[in-house]
Amino acid sequence: MNVSDSELMLGKLAAEGYTPVDSPEGADVVLVNTCAIRENAEQRVIGRLGEMRRHVGKDTILGVTGCMAQRLGPRLLESDTRVSLVVGPDAYRSLPHLIEAARKGERFAATDFDLEEHYEDFQARRFDGVKAWIPVQRGCDYRCTYCIVPYTRGPERSRRLDDVVRETREIVEQGLTEVVLLGQTVNSYTDGTHDFADLLRAVGAVDGIRRVRFTSPHPNDFSERVIAAMAEVETVCEHVHLPMQSGSSRTLKRMLRRYTREEYLACAAALRAAVPRLGLTTDIIVGFPGETDEDFEETLSAVREVAFDDAFLFKFSMREGTPATRLPAELLVPEAVVDERFDRLLETVRGIAREKNLRRLGERMEVLIEKEARKGGDMLQARSRDFKTVIVPGDATMIGTYLTVELTGTTGSTFSGTPVSVRAPLPVA
Ligand code: 5AD
Ligand code: SF4
User: Fold this and answer.
1) Does the C-beta of 1 come closer than 6 Å to ligand 2?
2) What is the DSSP pairing of strand 415-419 with strand 389-393?
3) Is 389 a member of any domain?
4) Cβ(151) to ligand 1 under 6 A?
5) Distance 153 CA to ligand 2 centre (A)
6) Ligand 2 closest atom vs CA 153
7) What is the pLDDT of residues 86-111, one digit of tens each?
């Protein structure tokens, strides 16, 4: 979501005549787009701001945007005198105006929510030449007790379906074939007339689109209609990132996730039944206040039962102003216990992924080449429809193209693949 917001801001500023530069030295304006989801995300922002202060000239306008800007507002102006603008996620429209004001020496925090704001008229300036992020919903109406998002991104609102389709068409015209629909609980999408099933069908039917993904759904919003659309629309990829957060119903209740362990497992099973070869990934929080050894064991067993293809694990981070701050202090899980649980969970997740991946060696599949592989050496990083990373040989001219590969090796988490030529079916005489 933050990458997508950065693309919108860059687009807006480009329309006003600004051009992006590669380094902060010599920049007229430096904006640090921020996340507030966990304490360490904010620590990194503070580090980055310190770095910027050392690199930018005295006339450079330094601004902070995004969730941390929203959360701290004027407090950021007080704590960092070098920062002259603080702009929350619903106020990017005012950026050019605020930058002009900052040039005249003013300092400003713009943090009002705007329930109508979708930035539809902004021409996103995309970083990625292969897949396009499309924000379809902003904000969140859930109130998970650990989460800062409802306070930094405001209430949930969805963009109009026809506007999302228009943007998808433009993306295809620019030569991209994959889109990722974005929303905090993206499958609760509704524009008053259409639900997320309608959106998947409409975007999936745009001429030239080959892959549709979305992130992140909430288990409670996987209606039968949405699951049916996933199963029926060929361009919708066989992958769901379905945040579980915990496998213990007791913990889930304290988190106010609004589902039980059994309901989560049923949702995963329904998705798997409807979509053959579905890749399933998740988010899990370790050490939520009150999490006992028994609760944690339930998370481990749920992870084994679902057999996730991958999982992002997070140590619980207390966020100021969230309902979790009101839980009794004696419920806090000691750091050493959290560390130990985190390591055990990571080992479990990796073990399952490794086992599943080993069983897939020899399989053939279509991948989309995304970029040069990190290790270089004429290797490219590609992605399968079910979200596996596959490293293939080739050169940069192949980026953005599709290839059929055979999976020949795995590190346990990623694959190496060898291109295979697929013979076209013979024409019928
Ligand atoms: N502490 C730890 N992890 C968190 N997440 C959200 N809020 C917190 C928090 N306070 C995690 C959730 C979410 C992911 C984006 O970040 O797992 O799905
Ligand atoms: Fe946060 Fe819960 Fe909303 Fe996700 S659904 S953004 S975890 S409040």
Assistant:
1) no
2) parallel
3) yes
4) no
5) 10
6) 6
7) 999 999 999 999 999 999 999 999 99
Q: What is the pLDDT of residues 285-305, one digit of tens each?
A: 999 999 999 999 999 999 999
Q: Does residue 216 form part of some domain?
A: yes
149 close to ligand 2 (CB < 6 Angstrom): yes
Q: Which two tokens stand for residue 195?
A: 């639900």
Instruction: Answer left, alpha or beta for residue 387, where phi above 0 means left and psi between -120 and 50 means alpha.
Output: left
Residue 174 in tokens: 């620019």
Atom of ligand 1 nearest to the CA of 318: 10
* Region for 207 from its dihedrals, namely left if φ exceeds 0, alpha if ψ lies in -120 to 50, beta otherwise: beta
Does the pTM of the predicted model rise above 0.90? yes
With a CB cutoff of 8 Å and minimum separation 6, the contacts of 75 are none
- Specify the ligand 2 atom closest to the Cα of 257: 2
Nearest Cα residue to atom 5 of ligand 2: 142
Residues 155 and 273 in one domain: yes
Does 239 share its domain with 372? no
Token readout for 187 is: 């499958």
Q: Which pLDDT does position 225 carry in this prediction?
A: 98
Q: In which domain, by residue range, is 239 found? A: 131-359
Q: Which of 359, 376, 394 is the last residue of a domain?
A: 359
Instruction: Establish if 258 belongs to a structural domain.
Output: yes
**What confidence tier does 374 reach under pLDDT thresholds 50, 70, 90?**
confident
Bond preceding residue 421 cis, omega within 30 of 0: no
Token representation of residue 314: 């997070």
